[in-house]
Amino acid sequence: MASKKLFNTIDSRILRKKAAENTQPFITVSFYKYFTIQDPASFRDLLYESWSSLEILGRTYIASEGINAQIAVPEPNYERFITKLYSITELNGVRLNTAIESGALAFFKLIIRVKSKIVADGITDPSFNPANTGVHLNADAFNEIISRPDTLLVDMRNHYESEVGHFKGAILPDSDSFRDEIHLVEKMLDEQRDKHIVMYCTGGIRCEKASAYLKHKGFANVYQLEGGIIKYTRDVREAGLENKFVGVNFVFDERLAERVSDDVIANCHTCHKPFDVHTNCANPCCHILFIQCEDCKVTYNNCCSIECKTIVALPAEEQRILRKGKVAARNVFRKARFNEG
């Protein structure tokens, strides 16, 4: 008997075009949970088969420590998706964070991968327990505690995320990855262990691990924003609370951001005028994630530099020759530093 197809092998360009033409309404949702999965590969295949049948798109990581999912579900299939998801004992009732904004399709294909961890953290201590997290705060409690003078608020996201949006008064570590940041924050806070440490991230998954790690390292008063910026934004709007987040919330999908406030706190990396929309360089050899205003997009032909603009202007065959033998760029989510030094 032929095995079932559990991977998408269609060319990404075709899938992107298909997604762009898709007028079906989708609900963008994210969720995570730390729990023991004895056979991640089999669990992955179970999800892929189930979600493919519901035409779900998105990106999900499975590991022995749990699941981390960001997906787009066709609106007519959403209730069936919840029923199937909650039928899995360990995921019954798991919190689902729906997107702040709707409209643009966030994903163009379904990817479910088995990883060593659902969040790469660089932690090797076998005695570390990620389930021993800090105190979870709802939006109201979060607003109250961060107003206290004995509280330190820490952004547990990468610098390119906090660059375009963050909570007022937060510490913004200059880190390219969570793996680096979790250890950087420990050192930064080492002499302030008497403070109340409040952490936040996009949807809560990084803070689950970061708050547990600080407790593991002896910090006593550790808290985290429940559901992250996504849930906070929805809750303050529904409850009429003060919104203490300024700018946009960076998201890891095709949209790249959800606007939380009208404040524009970042600048175009090319001309430095106020702007906060990320894009990727049109040169496939570069593909760097950076902020570029509409005027500079025209001037540089959607590229990050004159050099890249020159390359994309070459005939397709010459571009292929330049790319031959080169490994695809891994700097998609790194800050552009074109004018430094």
Structure description:
The chain has 3 domains: 24-114, Alpha-Beta Plaits; 135-239, Oxidized Rhodanese, domain 1 (3-Layer(aba) Sandwich), CATH 3.40.250.10; 267-341, no CATH class. It has 341 residues and is of the alpha/beta class. The N and C termini lie far apart (61 Å). The strands form 4 sheets. It has a 5-stranded mixed β-sheet, covered by helices on one side. Helix content is 30%, strand content 20%.
Write the layout of secondary structure elements.
Layout: H1 12-21, E1 26-34, H2 40-53, E2 57-63, E3 66-74, H3 78-86, E4 97-98, E5 110-114, E6 135-137, H4 139-145, E7 151-155, H5 159-162, E8 165-167, H6 178-189, E9 196-200, H7 205-216, E10 222-225, H8 228-239, E11 245-250, E12 257-259, E13 278-280, E14 289-291, H9 294-299, H10 306-312, H11 316-323
Parallel strand pairs: 2-5, 6-10, 7-9, 9-10
Antiparallel strand pairs: 1-3, 1-4, 2-3, 8-11, 11-12, 13-14
